[in-house]
Amino acid sequence: MEVTNAVGRRKTAVARVYLQEGKGNITINKKDIEVYFPLKTLQFIVKQPLNTIDVVNSYDIKVNLFGGGIKGQAEALRLAISRALVKVDPEHKSKLKAEGFMTRDAREVERKKPGQPKARKKFQFSKR
């Protein structure tokens, strides 16, 4: 059995995916997906690339996931799974790209600037 790996990132979350043929089990940090992501919406986000190309029960997926919040982690994992599926079969790329799963969302939190309360907010200006 050949193992395919890929990395996905979103905000500060990093997902490392190891994909191999199996029964459709998804294990995240040694926990089942239903335990790690109790919300159905996040489980749906993770499984989107698998549903798009109809291979939900064809691969076992092991994931190392850290950083960020739960939404960022789910989206990082979606990107990593998409990249791994394309490594396995490059013909899936056009379908996944059309759905927007192959694009890394590069938006990051802007840093806070000195002399300001937030990144862009300014203290109230006083003329006198």
Describe this structure in words.
This protein has 128 residues and is an alpha+beta fold. The protein has one domain (4-99): Ribosomal Protein S5, domain 2, CATH 3.30.230.10. It has helices at 33-36, 40-52, 70-88, 93-99; strands at residues 4-10, 13-21, 26-28, 31-32, 59-66. It has a 5-stranded mixed sheet. A hairpin with a 2-residue loop joins strand 1 (4-10) and strand 2. Helix 2 runs parallel beside helix 3 (70-88). It is elongated. The model has no long low-confidence stretch (mean pLDDT 93).
Q: Give me the number of helical elements.
A: 4
Secondary structure: helix percent: 25-40%
Please name the CATH topology: Ribosomal Protein S5, domain 2
- The structural class is alpha+beta
Topology order in helix (H) and strand (E) letters: EEEEHHEHH
What is the CATH top level name?
Alpha Beta
Work out the number of β strands: 5
Sum up the structure in keywords.
34% helix; alpha+beta; 5-stranded mixed sheet; 128 residues; 5 strands
Summarize the structure.
With 128 residues, this protein is of the alpha+beta class. It is built from four helices and five strands; from the N terminus they run ββββααβαα.
What's the topology here?
Elements: E1 4-10, E2 13-21, E3 26-28, E4 31-32, H1 33-36, H2 40-52, E5 59-66, H3 70-88, H4 93-99
Helix pairs in contact: 2-3
